[in-house]
Amino acid sequence: MARHKIYQEEEFPSPFIQLWLIFRQSPVVMIGFGSFLFLTVLAVFSPLLTPYSPVESHLNSLLLPPAWDDAGDISYLLGTDNLGRDMLSRLMHGTSLTFGLSFIVVIISLVIGVIIGSLSALTKGIKSSFLNHFLDVILSIPSLLLAIVIVAILGPGLDNTLWAIVMVLIPQFVHITRNAVKEELTKDYVLASRLDGAGSLRILSYSVFPNIIEKIVSQATLAQSAAILDIAALGFLGLGAPIPLPEWGAMLSNGIDLFYIAPWTVYLPGLAILFAVVATNLVGEGMRHAIRQRKES
């Protein structure tokens, strides 16, 4: 009996297990997934792991190069900036501000966007047409440009930056959820549920959502990549995290004037942004490939 049960579980794995089995087939994707998990852990525990305070100045150690340089100091593994602040501590703490906050922004946008998109998929007529055209207009505007406009209206600052990015990402989730729900509502199993007396909310909760969750998760990874770039870009422009917070974009902006005498103050935060975006994109690409393969099989 036990063997028969194991055989059944292996024969018919759950949709998420099927996705995972396909997802892990690519070594490159798994490297990206491992990097994504590393950044997530660092974003949560960086305040406990940083060797120094990210805002503490060491006036006797101004512009020290990384430890592998002849003039470097092993006490400051990645060197210091123009105020003697430890670059490693600032980069680690910046993981919470750039990568960690992007994750929170995406979760908020996802919840609001999925709710609005699901409800709008049930509407018809003028309301549906108006929303469709409105989304087309919003999505035609580059996300960074729209975020800059919103921050200009709300005022600079980290809180306003995050709300601006939330407002930019919500239409993307509304659009993909609305289209996915509308597509599912035309299928036979939804008609069968209606004939059984199920209401619209019950159909969405128990019939439609399980079939579109993969699309939403895939969109979330793309949205996080965009959120990382938008947070860093607004920080670089001086519209995001205020001084002396070690947000990666703000660190990059602060190091521009020092590029020729202390290039590590520029390329280290730049590489951190690149690393986070590439890791997130690899996870998103792996999710899209897994979803495509599962549908074809």
Distance between the termini: 29 Å
Structural class: mainly alpha
Radius of gyration: 23 Å
The percent of residues in helical segments reads: over 70%
Average pLDDT number: 85
**Count of extended strands:** 0
Query: Strand percentage, roughly?
Result: under 5%
Describe the biggest sheet?
Answer: none
Order of helices and strands: HHHHHHHHHHH
What does the overall shape look like? elongated
User: Helix count?
Assistant: 11
| Low-pLDDT ranges | 1-10
Characterise the protein shown here.
The chain is 73% helix and 0% strand. The chain is mainly α. The chain has 11 helices and no strands. The chain has helices at 2-11, 15-23, 27-49, 87-121, 126-139, 143-154, 158-185, 188-195, 200-236, 248-255, 264-296.
Defining key terms:
297 residues; 11 helices; 73% helix; 0% strand; elongated
Topology:
Blueprint (H helix, E strand, L loop, with lengths): L1 H10 L3 H9 L3 H23 L37 H35 L4 H14 L3 H12 L3 H28 L2 H8 L4 H37 L11 H8 L8 H33 L1
Helix pairs in contact: 2-11, 3-4, 3-11, 4-7, 4-9, 4-11, 5-7, 6-7, 6-9, 7-9, 8-9, 9-10, 9-11, 10-11
Briefly characterize the structure.
The chain is mainly alpha-helical. It has helices spanning 2-11, 15-23, 27-49, 87-121, 126-139, 143-154, 158-185, 188-195, 200-236, 248-255, 264-296.
